[in-house]
């Protein structure tokens, strides 16, 4: 087990290293100049001012030292949680800007991932058991999982927020509220959260449901299931085993789907004007705010890595094969 | 947006436990039932079952219908998809089947052009991802050893990097302005799960008698992979491609939607982007934003359902389910 | 394993319960409940359309500050009245030129206080102006022609000029806000431009209340100087400026009554006005909006064939502006006068020159102009080649995501193609476009950085500014070099509006602009403003008796009089 | 009579029609008898062994009946059959290596299985432990996951589990094919021992390995192309087979003990007929060196000697 984790951690660290390096590398060798951006922003019209201001901003963005130093500085700063200064939102530090947005994104992602996974697996398992349920869940699941995230968001926003007016159309909480520990505020948070959550949940749910349904069907054909049947075990017991065993690949699937879900959250936020990372990234793109974009990218990478690691741990907890296979001893 | 849940199954065990874990193994093609039959008969059998499988036939009809629509329909128009041809913001009518945009563009024409881009990006992106994934999977699985370790590492890294985030970064720096280049980038980041699955499959095929025989007869590694291993996984590879196709389409729609799509071309994601930006939701121009999403859902959904059908065709055990 | 799913199930039910409870409850937030932390609807003004990113700085010296930082908190000495085209004293009681125009004396109002109760004095003004000596301060070029500034007493500041640019100075006077010396002087030079300046201390009617990712909240302060001095009172106790996530979201907020004033570009708003959405604009009919700035097609005159005036002329003739106005904008903008001068400057337009040298849309004429100048289709592809017979292929760039301009660019390209000019529209990211524009690495682009100001000088300075440098940050993106024109612009800057030479100089510049076409004026971008009357009435409008202030929250509009809009608003009386 | 099979026909449904995989088998297995069942793949031996415990979804009982200890075995009725499985008929599958649920501890799985069959685990545990001792497995294996056991251990575990309820008939399907030689021998011996201790009354051992069959089986039954060819005491089949097919089968082995491993018989030209539409008459006649005119009639499976049944005109 130790070897298993050591290997995993090594891969994650390497991925992180690659991501950071890539992240550092690209803007420095691509066209586009944050200093120029700032000069444009401040509309310098005085020719004499350009040179000193260029020098000044070079210093602010840490671009006034040799490349190798910039790279080391980048790491040093990063390890202190410092991802530089945003160009678009100058002079706000990138970390600060991102940390303001992250809670919203996490509030969408974590519940939608966990709940869709849970509900999808349950319903998928049920579907594999009953023909009529299978005939309804399967097409619905395929339709949902084939639906682009933003489209389901668009349809929900249009029908429930704009036409029916049941839900608000934008924002993280009502614009007439100040954050407080009140029921009103909490309600407002939930209301604004619900539709973006729902659109993420639905698409992911469809995927898990059909995934589980198909997995179970394969599991029911597995040798242990055949053996149990030959020994006259009731279907219920076999299905219970099949469900549990089918959960494992679904868990792996969860790790694989994280990136997709993050992407879904980003576009969903855009549709609902939800103040999370998605909008921030969109604006960073449009403003070529490399530093903010890098920060957001790293943040997502770190988030996905951590989530992967958590899933690895859970996997080891639920799958005796990884656990015992590595330690080689009986429990 | 690549690998949707159906893929997670094939992927399954190697992801978490490595070889030590006996997988709920890759279910298709390489199974003893299929292998026992001679090749030609197998193909005939598969075709026979495929044509009788409701999922394959139904899904296939939907996909082909959309393909035909995308290929043929634009030929009947003598104006472009961006031209202002009709009244502004008018609903579906006999003349403009899907209504018009806020500028008076023909939504139906945009839709059929969008379907073209959708298929193009699916074919190219899915094809490229399949090519990369299979090559890496075959080589890693067949050659093994250090090569396998290195490729495995590469696969794991690309797998964990969130593709959309990477593509956004790349787009910002490089700029992606055509459907093929968009497909290229999607392909480059969608292959890892394929590589893993193919590697696991190859691993198990590598020790089979017929591969040993080929090796003894002095066949080179490349030839063995091409002539002995790949054909034995052909049905599986085909299904993988279908999943990658769907994934590419969804991925491209996402990119187009956030404004990172190609320019000068119409795509379904771009239609949604335009509709949203021009307040179609608030102004109630539902005919502008419903068709593109429905189109994607129908095409990708049909492909996925076809995939399940094919799974049943290639894996006789499942036929009765 | 057995307990975990149950736990998740419980969580799931809890969340569902909570959400369904909410669905059943109050869906809107316009209720009159007086729960803690809720801004009372009838005392709160909701605005949007100005901020596109989370509020992160309140520093009035560098652009990028939160909406209202200058205007609601920091104030200039004068504000500009675009209706009368004259400066109105604001923090200053008056300002006077000496007879030789060499010095300018500002007298401050009595009793103006900062929000920390310290008096605003001549020292603060001197300090603010002298900040311009720091190169990183955007107005540092002021000191190229300003010699000195001295505070002669508590309320009097005297400016001595080395080069009295009357128009430019008056522009400075209302565009720049005075900051409190006692707070700023402790900051280092670098800090002046990088400090976030949270909880800004200003002289204006509002103080900082709160901010979040998607909003900026200002609260009215007691004892704003203008209450006594000008009998002006801002009506809303709270101003909540909503950070735009997108224009369409703003439209949704507006139609659902959650927004009072939207300064967003709302496509299709013409339909809304006709419909029953209770949305109002300045004009009741097209173009609905006041004109804010001129959208211009900028040719890069350092490149062939854009360096050829005949080519530019043909290009101008090929563009069907009407199609942009009607098709793209649904008539919420107006086609520009060929001179590009905004409607507020109508009195300066020389109609004779316009009718003799102005251009109009005419594809055939464009073709003729091209043919006459030697641009012919020699390879038979339907597009003209340059004089040497090489194919012309030009790109018109507008920022990706600027949907209206993207559409407009397509229309322009279409028109050009019809006239035989091979121009295609491309949409790089906004910032990439900035780079291209700054560095002169483009063929054609759209730009509208010249808006309503105290004088057409700003417009002509924008068109003709010299010398042309490697990087052009704010003006003359065409890189058009015409020494005579530039001298006229400088002359204009030194000419007081009352001088008869003022108008004739403008006329001369018009002539050069129309014959040389350094840039092609297309349409007037609107001062997008949509309001609802669910909570506030008496919005600016063309109607008789209605306020005429600019209805805008855009930064730099406050000092063009928008601040007065807040004093005119009337709350809808609560039941 | 422990097991009586009477004219059993089980067909596979395929698209082209029924594959007559088991086309009328009539035989008996006596109490205490270990019967080896041999034949090429496609001979119907797996179909026969499967149909005695669980028809898979593509198999169809066409006609015939099975009696176990005098009671009819409802092999065509999945649900009714359930009551007999494990308790009356049990199976050691070919895939014993993967027959145990990988994510359950073995003891737990057994207890759940027994519970579902209405047997108290606590009551049977002492017996279970005794049998584990008997096959040389530590009792701790019950606390292990299958992956922690070696192949041989798993094989023995399955052996113990399958026979735990003392079934009347045990079907051992290719139980040794995945094992090394020494383990094979041990397993084979265990099978005999289980019979001797009367954990099971009778046994059908389906195998490729004639030498193994020869060691442990009392009788051997040979099948060819869906039909029974010959059934006789083990030494008779090996030393004095009467059916030409059996003769060729035995003689084509260089010596007893070499596996013929499911390959086509090298020594016999031709291949078995397709079972979709098998020719009338003796199904071996196309390959049979002794074939003569009468072979177009189907030879009956008759007792030619005591306990020696053969389906061949020449043998009668």
From TrEMBL, chain A:
InterPro entries recorded: MetI-like, MetI-like_sf
Keyword tRNA processing: no
Keyword Heme: no
Subcellular location: Cell membrane; Membrane
Residues passing through the membrane, by range: 9-26, 101-119, 140-170, 190-210, 246-272, 292-318
CDD domains: TM_PBP2
Domain of life the protein comes from: Bacteria
UniProt entry keywords in alphabetical sequence: Membrane, Transmembrane, Transmembrane helix, Transport
PROSITE patterns: ABC_TM1 (PS50928)
Main location: membrane
Topology of the protein relative to the lipid bilayer: Multi-pass membrane protein
ABC transmembrane type-1 domain sequence ranges: 102-311
Family: Belongs to the binding-protein-dependent transport system permease family.
PANTHER family reported for this sequence: OLIGOPEPTIDE TRANSPORT SYSTEM PERMEASE PROTEIN (PTHR43376:SF1)
Name of the protein in question: Peptide ABC transporter permease
Organism encoding this protein: Phytohabitans aurantiacus
TrEMBL record, chain B:
Keywords on record: Cell membrane, Membrane, Transmembrane, Transmembrane helix, Transport
Locations listed in the record: Cell membrane
Main location group: membrane
Domain ABC transmembrane type-1: start-end pairs: 115-307
Annotated CDD domains: TM_PBP2
Organism: Phytohabitans aurantiacus
Family in the record: Belongs to the binding-protein-dependent transport system permease family.
Protein name: Peptide ABC transporter permease
InterPro entries xrefs: BP-dependent_transpt_permease, MetI-like, MetI-like_sf
Matches recorded under PROSITE patterns: ABC_TM1 (PS50928)
Bilayer topology: Multi-pass membrane protein
Automatic annotation (TrEMBL), chain C:
SUPFAM superfamilies: Periplasmic binding protein-like II
InterPro entries: Peptide/Ni-bd (IPR030678), SBP_5 (IPR039424), SBP_5_CS (IPR023765), SBP_5_dom (IPR000914)
Signal peptide: 1-24
Coarse class of the protein's main subcellular location: membrane
Record's bilayer topology term: Lipid-anchor
Keyword check for Signal: yes
This protein's UniProt keywords: Signal
Top-rank taxon, per record: Bacteria
Subcellular localization(s) per the UniProt record: Cell membrane
Family the UniProt entry places it in: Belongs to the bacterial solute-binding protein 5 family.
Name of the protein: ABC transporter substrate-binding protein
Annotated source species: Phytohabitans aurantiacus
Automatic annotation (TrEMBL), chain D:
Record GO terms (molecular function): ATP binding
PANTHER family xrefs: MALTOSE ABC TRANSPORTER, ATP-BINDING PROTEIN, OLIGOPEPTIDE/DIPEPTIDE ABC TRANSPORTER, ATPASE SUBUNIT
Swiss-Prot/TrEMBL keywords: ATP-binding, Nucleotide-binding, Transport
Family annotation (Gene3D superfamilies): P-loop containing nucleotide triphosphate hydrolases
ABC transporter domain boundaries: 3-250
The keyword Nucleotide-binding is annotated on this UniProt entry: yes
UniProt cross-references to Pfam families, sorted A to Z: ABC_tran, oligo_HPY
Protein name as annotated: Dipeptide/oligopeptide/nickel ABC transporter ATP-binding protein
